[in-house]
UniProtKB/TrEMBL annotation:
Pfam families per record: ExbD
Membrane topology: Single-pass type II membrane protein
Binding partners and assembly: The accessory proteins ExbB and ExbD seem to form a complex with TonB.
UniProt GO cellular component terms: plasma membrane
Protein name, entry field: Biopolymer transport protein ExbD
Transmembrane intervals: 21-42
Compartments, record wording: Cell inner membrane; Cell membrane
Keyword Ribonucleoprotein: no
Gene3D superfamilies per record: 3.30.420.270
Length: 155
């Protein structure tokens, strides 16, 4: 970069219309590196086997296997109560040892999240990883506002 010495003191200095972009580029590169490092840390990978909210319900197998967690925290496979000690053996007997069988898990409203997770850990410990959570189908907000007819005629 060259500098020019003024020949005359009375002459006004020329304005320099150049922008020094080196600090700007340095800041942009630092920000780029920060975002490149932070972006992979911000993603969360959760493996959940649930359909989208607008999807129609998935077809049910001919003989679904329901595991029920009651409000007193007792377990039932189908309609039979099962103690937790023999849970894995009973489940293996019902599925004939097929660990790819989808287990439909339903729980009472009064059951806490921690208790539900314990049952899911029991299933995982037994080797069953395909779990479907069962809930009641509810009407959309617009349909729920109109009361259903009480006389059974549909009118």
């Amino acid at each position: 970069m060259a500098a020019r010495i003024r020949e005359n003191i009375d002459v006004d200095l020329e304005e320099n219309h150049e922008i020094n972009v080196t600090p700007f580029i340095d800041v942009i590169l630092v920000l780029l590196i920060i975002f490149m490092v932070a972006a992979p840390l911000a993603t969360v990978d959760v493996n959940v086997d649930l359909p989208g909210s607008t999807a129609t319900p998935a077809p049910r197998p001919e003989m679904p296997l329901f595991l029920t967690l009651k409000d007193d925290l007792s377990l039932a496979i189908g309609n039979d109560s099962v103690p937790r000690g023999v849970f894995a053996a009973t489940l293996d007997g019902r599925t004939k040892g097929d660990k790819q069988t989808r287990i439909f898990l339903r729980a009472d409203k009064a059951v806490g999240y921690g208790d539900l997770m314990e049952v899911m850990n029991l299933l995982r410990g037994a080797g069953y990883l395909k779990i479907a959570l069962v809930g009641l189908e509810t009407l959309p907000a617009a349909d729920a506002a109109t009361p259903a007819p009480q006389d059974g005629t549909g009118q």
